[in-house]
């Protein structure tokens, strides 16, 4: 069982370069109870791509989650600051 949820949604936008990207992650469980990190990314407003990583222990999923957050922050991704309509 997962100790706590780990949801994250971040964006990177640069109108001058026509860039509008999102990156979302969360740690959940497979139907067999294994920890699973789900990543989704793509252009804002589009479906994008999705990848699942299944682990034996929750700590491994959290470690990858934190590593990916660090990488994305270094590339300029930030939490969404305003609502879009």
From TrEMBL:
Give the Pfam families listed for this entry: WGR (PF05406)
Transmembrane parts of this sequence:
none
* CDD domains in the cross-refs: WGR_MMR_like
Enumerate the InterPro entries for this protein: WGR_dom_sf (IPR036930), WGR_domain (IPR008893), YehF/YfeS-like_WGR (IPR049809)
* PROSITE patterns, per the entry: WGR
Q: Which residues form the WGR domain?
A: 1-85
Whether Aminoacyl-tRNA synthetase counts among this entry's keywords is no
Q: Which UniProt keywords apply?
A: Plasmid
On the tree of life, the source organism's domain of life is Bacteria
Gene3D superfamilies (alphabetical): WGR domain
Provide the protein name. Answer: WGR domain-containing protein
* Originating species: Rhizobium leguminosarum
